[in-house]
Amino acid sequence: MTTFFTPAEVRNAVELLASRFLIRLVTEIDDNGAIPTRRLAGTLPDLSSHQLRRATETARAHGLVRVVPGAGLELTESGSELADLYDAVARWARRHAYPAPVCEFSGRIRHVLDLLAPSLATERAGGFARPSAGRLPSAEAEGDLARPRALLIQWLADNPQVTRVPEPEPVA
């Protein structure tokens, strides 16, 4: 697959997808089904009302969740595919103890997305950049990254709204 992204598009997408609040919302709905909006705070008690509102608004704006009368928030097809991507990324991270043998689910996803991001924007140059900080995976583990990377590229290609970089506000 030869889908290319600008560094700004990759940065925008990874910032969004690596949001702890979004990860929690998407995976909770994926694991347990629709959440009535009035029960969000009880379902995700570790998130403040501001974080819940931000996650919900972000997920709706990017077409990841929808409100279904009588059921509440449920994943769209894109949201369900994102949950699958999160699962694949987290499985890779657990298998390779990345970034550490013990790490929370959303932390694993954030670290792997950060690890993958440079290669998405530098593929044109023929090389794959490596992150400069933190524990790097072994060569074998890095080779295993091909599947999560391909899933991420496909998901981003299917969901271009996530890579769009907001236009700067005009100065009055």
Can you give me a brief rundown of this structure?
This protein is mostly helical. Helices cover 56% and strands 5% of the residues. A hairpin with a 3-residue loop joins β1 (65-68) and β2 (72-75).
Can you walk through the features of this model?
The structure is a single chain. With 172 residues, the protein is mainly alpha-helical. It is built from eight helices and two strands, in the order ααααββαααα. It has helices at residues 7-17, 20-32, 40-43, 49-61, 77-95, 105-122, 139-144, 146-158; strands spanning 65-68, 72-75. Strands 1-2 form a two-stranded antiparallel ribbon. A hairpin with a 3-residue loop joins strand 1 (65-68) and strand 2 (72-75). The relative contact order is 0.17.
> Structural class, please?
mainly alpha
Q: Which percent bin holds the helix content?
A: 55-70%
Q: Beta-strand percentage?
A: under 5%
List unreliable stretches of 5+ residues.
123-134
Order of strands in the sheet with the most strands?
1-2
The largest sheet, given as strand count, sense and whether it forms a barrel, is: 2 strands, antiparallel
Task: Spell out the helices and strands N to C.
Answer: HHHHEEHHHH
